[in-house]
Amino acid sequence: MPYKQKIIPFIDRLINDAQLTNSVNTIFLDDTNSLVGENTDVFGLQAAYLKEIINAEKNPAITPEIKELVIILIKLGKFHQEI
Question: For the chain, what is the total number of helices (H) and then of strands (E)?
Answer without folding.
Answer: 4, 3
